[in-house]
Amino acid sequence: MTTAQAGPAGLPSVGDLLRDWRRRRRLSQLDLSIQADISTRHLSFVETGRSRPTPEMIIRLTEQLDVPLRERNTMLLAGGYAPAYPQHGLDEPELASVRAALRRVLAAHEPNPAVLINRWWEMVDANGAVAALTGGCAPELLVPPVNVLRLSLHPDGMAPRIINLPQWRAHLLSQLRRRAEALGDQRLRELAAELAGYPGGEDHSVSASDVVLLETMLEQEEDAVLRQSLREAFDRAVITGEQTLTPEKTASILMQLHNRMEAQEAQIQRLPTRSWHSRLLPYAAAVAGLILLAGLVAMYYSNLQKKGSGNIAVVQQHVKFIRNTTLKTVTITLPEGSLVTMEPGAALLYADSAVRNITLQGKAVFNVKANRNNPFTVYAGNTVTMALGTLFTVDAQHPQMVTVKLETGKVLVRTKDGTTKEDIYLQPGEEFHFDSALHQYSVAKAAAGAARSAKGNADTKHAVLMAFNNAPLDSVLGKLETAFGINIRYEQSDVDGAYFTGQILKTDSLQNILQVICQLNNLELTPGEGNMSIRKIR
Asked: How far is Cα 405 from Cα 429, in angstroms, rounded to an integer?
């Protein structure tokens, strides 16, 4: 029986803290170990207290988990190390130059109001125009430290002046709950509970932030009635044009939602009806970042000057969703003139404000209208294809296996996860193949005179299965296990401090690869039935 190593008095163990942050980021041990380039076994040992992480390991893991610097110091202390990140108050001498720069920014916004806030949305500093914005608010709400969220939503504060209060209130509460969850901050949770009790009406529309929560609910297989209600509500929101994320992110989220729900509809079993809105609130998850009120109050103050009343503008964008529901190919013309021939089942998403930024699911041929000042971009699976004016095909019927084939002109292809290291430029007749599960890619060109769909005549330019540059040996062994599907046994202490640099070709056998690695690191390889064992030569 193993028990976690306790941290210093009053602190949980570093393993407990690490596990808490990993779960908060909704990552498995395998996900985090791949991102941090360590073995799953070593990560498990750290979380259970069987292995004490070095300061470098703690910092590496917290960087991958996007842990705030204050909490990184806490984890270092829990591990028995000194904090790595200095912390100073804004009024301390060490931050005098920062303080001066921030005040210049605040002053530059005048005559528009602007405020500087801390992590709890408390006003740290403000320019002179803020007094005009907050005039008439209850005096007790203006007693330092002024919380700008409380001031915005309190019925004796600015709430009566906001014409779209239900939507604005829902947005602020969603962001506050997400930040409280992301930081694990009890003070923010209490603030969210207080603000939720203020009057202001309920917003029953579905925002883009709600869509992220919906994705989580789908992954957790929430009941069918709830899924259907959320889908219908979100579709209505798309029709009305509410948009709070970037067009590309919204397009990606919406595409995933349609695909997942259509695949699951045939298996839905009806469950007791519940209010979708009441079920949605507990799933508010973590999204880090401070609210930038300078832009908000600038809009408010602009309307105040023009109309004499405090109205906050609502900006809307529209997203187009097109799916080929027929059994034959369909050609459509995009607003900017490009032609897209969609295979049966294919779907496109784009925003009115970015019609040359397309998200694709399925297979389609793009005949792009030339525009040197505005590249045409297709997002499919884990790939990004860019063109100025050309003819190419993108096949993403299986999102983990994407193929881009160039017919005429020239296109640039890259992977979102950095597998390609650099941009790939295709020539006419070349195909780019990417397997995101194995992090493998190749560029092939059909033999002269061969049919477009012919297979086996490709001249593969990149036969590298994977490449390592001074990678920890336990990470290398873990990736080899995944790629070859064979268990590699070893003691963590035998590979600690060992690294590997080199390329693994598709033609290499696992045994040959491991023999080379063992020779370089004074290790001994013993092949077994369905597994490989490695141990230190004593």
From this structure: 7
* Same-domain check for residues 495 and 531: yes
Domain that includes residue 68, residue range: 14-78
Asked if 406 and 428 count as a contact pair (C-beta separation under 8 A), the reply is yes
Residue 385 or 304, more confident: 385
Short-list 96, 83, 78, 95, CA closest to 18: 78
Query: What is the phi/psi pair of residue 405, to 5°?
Result: -120, 130
CA dist list (Å): 348 to 18, 71, 136, 311, 375? 39, 41, 50, 36, 17
Share of the chain above pLDDT 70, in %: 72
Question: Which of 116-120, 124-128, 152-156, 237-241 is predicted with the least confidence, judged by mean pLDDT?
Answer: 237-241
- Residue 458 shares a structural domain with residue 475: no
> How many angstroms separate the CA atoms of 248 and 135, rounded?
40
φ, ψ for residue 159 (rounded to 5)? -55, -45
Residues 537 and 164: their CA atoms lie apart, in Å, by 71
* Residue 313 within any structural domain of the chain: no
| 456 and 324 within one domain | yes
Q: pLDDT tens-digit profile of 51-78?
A: 899 999 999 999 999 888 888 998 999 9
Do residues 458 and 330 share a domain? yes
Confidence of residue 260 (pLDDT cuts 50, 70, 90): low
Burial 376-405 (b: 16+ CB within 10 A, else e): bbbbbbbbbbbbbbbbbbbbbeebeebbbb
pLDDT at 364 over 90: yes
Which residues touch 151 (CB under 8 Å, ≥6 apart)?
134, 137, 141, 142, 157, 158
More confident residue, 351 or 362: 362
Q: Are residues 455 and 485 in the same domain?
A: no
CA 87 to chain centre: 28
Q: Phi and psi for 236 in degrees, rounded to 5?
A: -65, -40
The answer to whether residue 3 is domain-embedded is no
User: Model's pTM, two decimal places?
Assistant: 0.37
**Which structure tokens are listed for 111?**
């005559």
Q: Is the peptide bond before 111 cis (omega within 30 degrees of 0)?
A: yes
The DSSP result for 38-52, as a single string, is S-HHHHHHHHHTSSP
CA atoms within 13 A on the CB side of 465: 14
